[in-house]
Amino acid sequence: MSIDHWGTNPADVIESALAAIETSLEELLAMDPTYWRTSQKKDFLAKVEKLQAQQAALTLRVLAVSGDIAAETGDKDASAWMRAELLVDKGAARSQIKLANAVTKYELVAAGLAEGVVSEAKARVITKALDKVETDPVATPEDLVLAEKLLVEYATQFTAKELRVVGRRILVEVDPARFEEAEAKALLAEEERAQQKTALRVWDNHDGTIGFDGVLPTSIGMRFKKQVEAWAQPRKQQLVDKGAPLPPWERLMGQGFARLIETIDPTVLPRHGGDATVVNVVISLEELRKELGTATLGYDEINGTTITAAEARKMACNATTIPWVLGGNSEILDAGRASRFFQPVQRKALRLQQKCCQAEGCDMPPEWCDAHREDVGASSRVAA
Q1: Of 142, 164, 196, which residue constitutes the final position of a domain?
Q2: Based on the domain organization, do 117 and 141 belong to the same domain?
Q3: Distances (CA, A) of 319 to 240, 313, 315, 334
Q4: For residues 13 and 39, what is the distance between their CA atoms, to the nearest angstrom?
Q5: How many domains does the chain divide into?
Q6: Nearest to 81, CA basis, from 99, 97, 98
Q7: What domain of life does the native source organism fall in (predicted)?
Q8: Is residue 10 included in any domain, yes or no?
């Protein structure tokens, strides 16, 4: 066991400090925060946030000089030992060791961690931004120094997420005259790469749901998010007004997305295969009349899927759906409609067929009436 030049055993100091920390934590864990005053809770959370940053600073310092552990395990770094002894995933361990090595390059970041004003998450954001500045062909060593100073200052004002946005354009903060044009070119290149990454997959889960995932350019993705949220929020407000418990936000967003699809204006859709983009629903008259009947979404079951008659009736009200009602021998009794309102030629046909309003006891002229369907599968009529 080694002794330093002043005759103090470092191991004793470390063990004593760790024991003091353990004792303090045990005392705090023995307490019930339910009975703490609000001011005590706020003070505790603020101090623990600072202590966590300082603990991260100390951990990173140790990891940065853990080469002897790697030599003992025969691995390129200490991650193998952390996986075996601490049960830390090797990827997570290597990520932490990488951060430890990055922090050693930036004194202000290391000092911020030690003071507790820069969290581990913010340190990760800052070092990534600074590494990018370091490899920038236009940036100078002086730019790197100033960028580090600015980012550490911003760390006391912004969250890690906000700091990431600032970090992406920190060189513009350093010297707008030199870096604004370079930033514009970098953003253009990023947008072009985003277009190449754009993708969408859709699949049938065969349980009454459709699954999908994809990648969108940021500009489109943010618009998509906002539009879905706009439809999700009214549903949320309706539940709040009724005093009902709120479902998970993901479900509200899913319902909002479904509503967004249902309300798309069919007149703005592109033509597909020589015809307007529509969804066909095939249902027999017998099934349509059943309370629990079924219908086919698509032309047939091979190329479509089965839904309830209730859902078919609901879809028949949508502008992008054509309901096909079949008789006993699959003869077409009604071909539905593909627009929300009757077309001019349909109104002319009704005008020739029906001389006045078809409501009982009403003799209003057709010109004063709206075209109306009494029921799916029934003949159209003109009604006031």
Answers
A1: 196
A2: yes
A3: 30, 13, 9, 16
A4: 34
A5: 4
A6: 97
A7: Bacteria
A8: no
54 with 85, same domain? yes
At residue 49 the predicted structure's pLDDT band, cuts being 50, 70 and 90, is very high
Buried b (16+ CB within 10 A) or exposed e, 121-133: bbbbbbbebbeeb
| Tens-place pLDDT, residues 209-257 | 889 999 988 878 888 988 898 888 776 677 777 777 888 888 889 988 9
Mean pLDDT for 145-149 is: 95
Is 163:156 a contact under the CB 8 Å cutoff?
A: no
313 within domain boundaries: yes
Q: Are residues 272 and 354 in the same domain?
A: no
Q: How confident is the model at residue 384 (pLDDT cuts 50, 70, 90)?
A: very low
- Are residue 228 and residue 306 in the same domain, yes or no? no
**Which residues, 6 or more positions from 306, have their beta carbon under 8 angstroms from its beta carbon?**
294, 295, 296, 297
Regarding whether 142 and 56 lie in a shared domain, the answer is yes
One-letter identity of residue 71: A
For residue range 260-271, what is the model confidence (pLDDT) as tens digits?
887 877 667 666
Same domain, 357 and 244: no
Q: What is the pLDDT of residues 312-326, one digit of tens each?
A: 666 655 545 555 666
The distance from CA 103 to its chain's CA centroid, rounded to whole angstroms, is 31
Q: Same domain, yes or no, for 238 and 169?
A: no
For residues 232 and 377, membership in a common domain is answered with no
Please say which residue of 196, 226, 244 terminates a domain: 196
Q: Give the structural domain span for 352.
A: 344-383
Instruction: List, as one string, the DSSP characters of 222-252.
Output: HHHHHHHHHHHHHHHHHHHHHTPPPPPHHHH
Q: Which residues contact 257 (CB under 8 A, 6 or more apart)?
A: 228, 231
Q: Is residue 335 part of a domain?
A: no
Q: What value does the mean pLDDT take over residues 120-141?
A: 94
Interior angle at CA 224, CA 222 and CA 226, nearest 5: 70
**Secondary structure letter of residue 268 according to DSSP:** G
Answer yes or no: are the C-beta atoms of 339 and 319 closer than 8 Å.
yes
Residue, of 286 and 111, whose pLDDT is higher: 111
pTM higher than 0.70 for the full model? no
Domain assignment present for residue 11? The answer is no
CA distance 103 to 68: 19
